[in-house]
Amino acid sequence: MKKLFLTTLILFITVALFAQSEKYTAAMKKNLEGLDSGMRNPASLLIVANNFERIATAEKTQWLPYYYAALAQINMLLCNRIKIRWMALQIKQRH
Question: What domain range includes position 33?
Answer without folding.
Answer: 21-94
